[in-house]
Amino acid sequence: MNAEDPRTLNAGPVRLKLADGELRYLRVNGREVLRRVYFAVRDARWDTVPSNFEVTEVRNRAGEFTVKLRARCVNEIADVAWRSRIEGRADGSIALEAEWEPRAEAEYPRIGICVLYGAEALAGCDFKSVRADGKRDHQSFPRLISPYQFAKGFTALHTTTREQVGVTVEVPGTQMDMEDQRNYGDSSYKAFVEGAALRRQRIEISVDTSSIEVLKDIPPTRPIVIGGPTDARLPRLTRTDRTSSEHEYTHFNRNRPDFANASRIEIPFNPAVHLDDDDTLMENIPAILDQAATIRSFAPDATLHAGPVWFDSPYPRPRRDSRNGTAFATAWLARFVKFAAQAGIEEAAIALADGPWTSLHGELSALAGSRLLDTGTGPHAAVDVLAVDGHGAWVINNRKATRQVTVRHRHGEQELVLAPYEVVPLSSAGD
Q1: pLDDT tens-digit readout, 212-261
Q2: Strand-pair partners of 177
Q3: Are 307 and 242 in contact (CB under 8 A)?
Q4: What does the alpha-carbon distance between residue 304 and residue 296 come to, in Å, rounded to a whole number?
Q5: What are 391-428's pLDDT values in tens digits?
Q6: What distance lies between CA 294 and its chain's CA centroid?
Q7: Where are the domains of the chain?
Q8: Is residue 235 helix, strand or coil?
Q9: 10 Å Cβ neighbour count for 198?
Q10: Number of C-alpha atoms within 13 angstroms, CB side, residue 145?
């Protein structure tokens, strides 16, 4: 199996995607319970070292699966080899074991298993953490972005989603900490194994199946319905060659009193700080909503600007991300503009390298201040719509797969088949 090709797996009632050696979008009846489980190597710069994967075995039958893979994480300052075995069982439990060894002497501030919890599913929800000494802490996932790590030194974490599905993550023989990754342009909370000393690591995930029956089955695919105007307005769009900023988001969030009377704050936005696969870059865009809301909580009079906005890795790379010149960048831009409008961003300085997206940028630049129309699509819908009052709509395929969708608006209904990352304008849909 090619490690880049995604594959759907089932562990009892849990359905998930295997892609690039990671478990992504663990869902029960379509509801996300965990965003991602993966193994990461951080180098001395705290850059996540790219992995070259080889999946050596995949068995997937009767609600159970086994995956075996090996990988090499190599860049100019790091070289680590690791292998993993993942088992999914019929009772909905999943176990991942990983073992690693350095192939080059270097500084590795963090190596190990990471678990992402989707912020949209869990913000404000309670969780319980268990320490090695048995002490239990009761907390809630922060709604606004926590400036610092908000849970430390736990061996198990019990969460319950909004739909009351219980999930337990355990790390026998080690401990995890948890941080709010929305500080860095991610749309998740991350639990991670402490440090880089433990060469063998294991994580066990279990789902409380007693709560699953209360969930209704996901209904068949329904049309996207474009409704009436919202309060959100399109930001002014500009272009910039800057791909760095004076202050990162954490500077504002960790120095709140200094910005209480600010009249203008510019938020740099880059979703590729930790991971840079297509799924990550698309799924992280909604983080701009929480970043804006958090700043308004301590700087209520500040106008919010976004810039630079781009998705190249912020760490040194020999060249610009090749996706700047593809349909992906157009879909990414359309999606970002929609969420920036919902976040109340007044101006966004786009720093993508030249590509086909520039045409859409020009069209949307002329619509600054126009109201968004309601579309009812969730933050992680496979197909999204940017609909502008009086000016039409753009249907966005957020996935690397062909999608079929029905869009319903005041002038009728349209059936569309979208190529991967295609953006299709509907000139009459916003009238």
Answers
A1: 555 554 454 689 999 999 999 999 999 999 998 889 999 999 999 999 99
A2: 192
A3: yes
A4: 9
A5: 999 999 999 999 999 999 988 899 999 999 999 999 77
A6: 18
A7: 7-214, 224-426
A8: coil
A9: 19
A10: 29
